[in-house]
Fold these 2 entries.
Entry 1:
Amino acid sequence: MKIVVFILSAVVLVSSEEGYVIKTRDDVADSFRHCLTTLHVSRETFKSTNWNLHADNDLVRSMIKCIVADFGLFDDSTGFHKNRMVKQFGGETVRVKVEKCIQDNPNGEPTVDKSVQKIRCIAM
């Protein structure tokens, strides 16, 4: 029975990773707007913020965290979805880089708070 449950779990996991749809620019824009609303960013704050990925800014970091979670690239119980990240950021040609960038945290606990440094790592 345990083997059947394990096999079914593996099939569901593989199916969910294979079923991941790469997000488009429109999806990014929709997610960005969703996160602006979620984080209650005013028009004035939006206009005055440097939205560069490498900006040292709490709001930018919060937006990255929100978008990563919104895209389904991170799960609180398992951490980063490596295969989804590989698929989203360029396919097999970037697998080694993605794997290096999203290695488990030293304490082994997944945390979306690390998403900023990991996305910056992948973008470099």
Entry 2:
Amino acid sequence: MGKVKKVAVEGYVVDFGKLSSQSRGIHGSNMDALQALLNTTVGKLTENNDALEPGMIVMKEENKAIVMTLNTRIEELEGELMVYRILMGKNVLGAISIHKINVLKPKKFKGARSARDVDNLL
């Protein structure tokens, strides 16, 4: 059997010696071409990852700052809401205050009534 080639990519190992029987028959030059293609692809992916990583760190820090700002604002609004609820509660209780209204009571009848007066009422 020929030389076994292994490629390690971020913790993963590709062992070309253990590939299917069809791939074992590949000529050495084709294997070298595949190896070069794989190395180029891995290199490009690593470069892209390295380029994106600082941007992601910056975005993560910006998101942390935004979340802290929003949490502070939420706490302020919750405090204002509590004050408004207290004020509205006092106003509602004040608006429902119970007042006694003086209603004139009829005077007691002094004297006699005739049946005619009663018929006139109806």
